Amino acid sequence: MLRQFVVAAAAAVFVVAPRPAVGDEQPPPPPIRAVTALLGQLTLEQKVGQLFVTYVDGQLPDQADPGNRRDFGVDTPAEVVAKYQPGGVVYFDNSTHDNIDTPAQIATLSNGLQKASRVPLTIATDQEMGLVTRIGPPATQFPGNMALGAGRGAEAAEKAAAITARELRAMGVNQDYAPVADVNSNPANPVIGVRSYSGDPALTSVLTAAQVRGYQQRPLSRYGVSATAKHFPGHGDTAEDSHTSLPTVDRTVEEWRRLDAAPFRAAVEAGVDSIMTAHIRMPKIDPSGEPATLSKPVLDLLRRELGYDGVIVTDALGMAGVRQLHPDAEVPVLALKAGVDQLLMPPNLGQAIESVVAAVRAGVLTEQRIDQSVARVLRMKFLRGVFLGPPFVDPQRAATSLGQPADLAVATGVADRSITVVRNDAKVLPAAKPTAALVTGWGETAGRTLAGLLGGTALPTGSAPTDGQIAAAEQAAAGADLVVVLTNGLADRPRQQALLTRLLATGKPVVAVAAQNPYDVAHTDAPTWVATYGSGAVSLAALARVITGEVKPTGKLPVAVPGPTPYPFGHGLEW
Predict the structure, then answer these.
(1) CB neighbour class for 28 (10 Å; exposed up to 12, middle 13-18, buried from 19)
(2) CA 170 from chain center: how many Å?
(3) Which residues participate in catalysis according to the annotation?
(4) How far apart are alpha carbons 131 and 146 in whole angstroms?
(5) What's the pLDDT band for 15 if we cut at 50, 70, 90?
(6) Which of 540, 500, 537 is nearest to 520 (CA)?
(7) 482-487/437-441 β-pairing
(8) Spatial CA neighbour of 138 closest among 91, 180, 108, 104
């Protein structure tokens, strides 16, 4: 009954609401009227459920998975939704929560979860592209954010986001936890790095706004998804990972305004549907030591200074950064008191819902405060067209509509523009098509992929090559006409440096490739350095084209690279 009311209310306010005559009092905007009507139909428990986004275990809605029995007391993903009636579900593709196999399967799962929910769900995932990509091929695979920063193209960034959104929506996913709006100002950052567009606030702002527009499209579009700018107030200057610790950022509010605020302001001005908080503490802004997720002074910067009235969603509540100071049952209540609207993946969903309901009944939270956040969540759903008709998708269309040739061509263009030649002192590049290339160093899959593209041999040596592996690489180099050495984390991995030094000593032409963070290029004196910002197939194919001269390099460093051999922001060779 509630579902029928939702659809009828949406149709009434969006489709057949009459235009007022000139001079008549203007009615509330359609989303406000629809949300007000729906709020009046929800019990307190149903309202509180709307504030939570949970994981589920399994790839089919009615297929039992022991993880659901362990965590939720029921067997199937659909039963989790039916039991708790959350506002949303988030999909993962890992050993803990595996929801992703094929496009048709994802669409079938989405349909089954929507069928089990009285109020249509937000269905989300982290499809940032690059390092954090939940859904692989046949979905169109784009390079990650820092590659977009190297390419400097706002139009390309918007187009990439629009393609990603359309493909997600075909699978029933209507929210993407992207883009990352963090300015990567700390080269030692262990959790952001190439997920950021840049170390420059202005460039990060331009690309953040472009991707928000691309993801969301126009209001009510069935091809857009809710974008989520993350991680407010900015996770770019941390040297710790909030998944495993509670990082501290010692910025003053003035420093925050200068270094971190601009991309979030740009996201707000672009109309972003939601903004995700970071589990970091900023003691010079909130001396209490609370993480930003639970800090009213920090979230007031978003609400009051940036003027944001959309959905504030937490990062996952199972992360260590938000669990160190308070019991799990208290965290959702504290987050709502601080100004959060949506609570992502509490460790115990039932306990979390009960704690919020109990807080309202005890007067710790008012029902008016709950209504404020529920209204924001429902408004977000309305604006993305989730309520306009049944929220189901066609699994067959999902199976055939992803990875279209025109979309793959856009991804190829983005990748080609991102490859950055940092150094070419020995004039190794461009190289003639090698006949006996050796690809060695970090990355088993990446090395074999690139070797195949170059028609050569792969000899992966991992993150910390042994003496035996280095000797074997030296021996293999003797018969090669080009040696490509992939690196990742060179500054902290001396064995990778040793491999590169020994191969340079062979006298063979060597191309060193920073296959993830570009900061590697400062840490050896190799005469030829290239940065790719990622090791996905699309980036490696672009690298091969640049190496062989098929494509001329145009990428520019989107970060300043400090170190023994520093390079400035904007550096990049062309020919």
Answers:
(1) exposed
(2) 19
(3) 243, 315
(4) 10
(5) very low
(6) 500
(7) parallel
(8) 104
